[in-house]
Design a protein that fits this description.
The protein is of the alpha/beta class. The protein folds into 2 domains: about 130 residues, 2-Layer Sandwich (Nucleotidyltransferase, domain 5); about 170 residues, ATPase, nucleotide binding domain (Nucleotidyltransferase, domain 5), CATH 3.30.420. The chain is built from 10 helices and 10 strands. The strands form 2 sheets. It has a 5-stranded mixed β-sheet, with helices on both faces. A 5-stranded mixed β-sheet has the order 8-7-6-9-10, with helices on both faces.
């Protein structure tokens, strides 16, 4: 008998619902919130209100697209955290209510674990990573290096001490006058520029931890200086600036991951999160696999950003071992492994 899991994701500004069957995605819908673009970032109160409007139609459509009846669902998996508390509450409350109404198990999911376990979705690459591996979660809110021994045996061995990598892209992109989210725009323009044109200081942080606040400050001062000499500096140099800036971030990430490989002796590197679709990061890690003796795994584009398919996949893995959640557990903005 087939096992159907409904996944619900509402950690930030995307309302998503997905149905999977035995690891195969039957539907994966995402309702984006365009309103945040005019503010240059996500506004938590507006995000939670939009989730309230979107969650019923998105879930209903996901079940419909999967060509099943809601009574065929075996369990509901939802994002308990980390994320914006107001947004998480909408998803968790709805999931609990539906679980009670259908009398089926409820499964809590850690959003960051799900980014890494998305690789085990049936259509997310022909070759699945073997345990143990080094997980690298890079997104707008997180930058982590994780030692992954098994599906749910994970330990953070390095993380940012301040800004996340995606946040750094967006904040520096805003300085350049690029729309939010700026990361994809920087990536696109970097392909047209010379990545060696400008040099930005890479913060020195011990071990496997990161720091991007110094890079951000240095970038701001660089722009102020250049524009003081030439107010039209970015008109002619935007592509070169984007390329040089992105290359700096890629090098910072690459150096830390290489150190993680050296310290752990593990040569399988698995990426997850919205920034893992950055072409500079993908090209850097793929180009050096043979010379540095490691394998890198990147998820399909649709599983890089926040999506419910990865939540449903984790739900399926937990369903197999009957790792169910209780109704009294609340959403957690800083939910840890």
């Amino acid at each position: 008998m087939s096992t159907y899991i409904l996944g619900i994701e509402s950690s930030c500004d995307d309302t998503s619902a997905s149905v999977i069957c035995e690891g195969k995605v039957l539907s994966n819908l995402i309702a984006n919130q365009e309103i945040h673009k005019s503010f240059g970032g996500v506004v938590p109160e507006l995000a939670s209100r939009a989730h309230q409007q979107n969650i019923i139609p998105v879930v209903n459509q996901a079940i419909s697209n999967a060509n099943i009846d809601k009574n065929q669902l075996n369990a509901i998996a939802y994002t308990r955290g980390p994320g914006l508390l107001g947004s998480l509450l909408v998803g968790s409350s709805f999931s609990k209510s539906l679980s009670i109404g259908l009398n089926i198990p409820l499964i809590e999911v850690n959003h960051m674990q799900a980014h890494l376990l998305a690789h085990f979705i049936e259509d997310c690459g022909e070759k699945k990573p073997e345990f143990p591996f080094i997980g690298v979660t890079i997104s707008g809110g997180h930058t982590q290096i994780v030692l992954v021994n098994d599906y749910f045996d994970m330990k953070i061995i390095g993380q940012t001490l301040d800004d996340a990598i995606g946040e750094t892209f967006d904040k520096c992109g805003k300085m350049l006058g690029l729309p939010y989210p700026a990361g994809p725009h920087i990536d696109k323009k970097s392909k047209l520029g010379n990545f060696n044109k400008y040099i930005f200081t890479k913060p020195k942080v011990d071990g496997l931890n990161f720091s991007f606040s110094g890079l951000k400050t240095g970038f701001m001062r660089f722009l102020e200086k250049e524009k003081s000499f030439n107010k039209d500096f970015l008109t002619s140099e935007l592509d070169n600036v984007c390329s040089s800036f992105q290359n700096t971030i890629v090098e910072i990430l690459f150096e830390k991951v290489m150190l993680a490989i050296k310290q752990t002796g593990i040569n399988r590197v698995v990426f997850g999160g919205g920034v893992s679709c950055n072409s500079g990061i993908i090209n850097k890690f793929k180009a050096n696999e043979k010379t540095k003796n490691y394998l890198s795994f990147f998820p399909k584009f649709e599983y890089t950003t926040d999506n419910a398919a990865m939540i449903a996949m984790v739900g399926y893995l937990k369903y197999i071992t009957k790792d169910f959640s209780s109704l009294d557990k609340g959403a957690e903005a800083r939910y840890k492994f």
